[in-house]
Specification:
4-stranded antiparallel sheet; 11 strands; mainly beta; about 50% strand
């Protein structure tokens, strides 16, 4: 079973960058597609990005395309979310999540992700 711990959140100004990391324990990290989700104040949790097991395939929600980049290092059991040109509307708790995919593929659906981290706060001031 994989366990996830996020880090890298903080308070930044609009236009700044942050890189979130999600470290996974366990020996089967490469069997999981990984995703980032976020929950802004007063909002429901939403999909941000996902990456396939190998890292060859990525999908983003429209609002972050061109600004955020998801990547993974299977040797380090870590997935990253590089966030550039941050906007106040990016303010949220960011969660990484793992979706067991022994046969590949990936999902944008929250319910498909079996394992979740505790979240890390990102606050973007205007």
């Amino acid at each position: 079973q994989v366990q996830l711990v996020e880090s890298g959140g903080g308070l930044v100004q609009a236009g700044d960058s942050l890189r979130l990391s999600c470290a996974a324990s366990g020996r089967t990290f490469s069997s999981y597609a990984m995703g980032w989700f976020r929950q802004g104040p007063g909002k429901e949790r939403e999909f941000v990005a996902t990456i396939s097991r190998s890292g060859a395939n990525t999908v983003y929600t429209d609002s972050v395309k061109g600004r955020f980049t998801i990547s993974r290092d299977n040797a380090k059991n870590t997935v990253y979310l590089q966030m550039n040109s941050l906007k106040p509307e990016d303010t949220a708790v960011y969660y990484c999540a793992a979706d067991y995919r022994p046969n590949g593929s990936w999902s944008l659906e929250e319910y498909e992700y079996e394992i979740w981290g505790q979240g890390t706060q990102v606050t973007v001031s205007s």
